[in-house]
Structure formats: structure tokens, C-alpha cells
Amino acid sequence: MDGIVVGVGGAEPWYGEAFGPVLAACLRAEVQRLAAEAAGQDLLAVPDGR
Q: How far apart are CA 8 and CA 26, in angstroms?
């Protein structure tokens, strides 16, 4: 999962630089968890139409 872009604004620049990557890491971890859960339940499989 490459290319995550997270913007944090409205605060001091150091705040955005500190919390932007943290937020991106949390989002990435949640997406990975959901993908692993879906793979275990075959939710990503294409039905064969029968």
C-alpha cells in the first residue's frame, strides 16, 4: 500500500509534522487488518454465478 498522503493543518507546523505520519500509520494498520479479515472470510472472492 504505497502512496498514503495525510495532511494535518490548522495548528503549529511541528504539530502537523508529528501527527501526520502517526495518523497515516494508524490508517494503514486498520486497512491491513480489514484486508486480512476479509481474506480469511473470502469476502474478496468473485462468485462463480451458480
A: 14
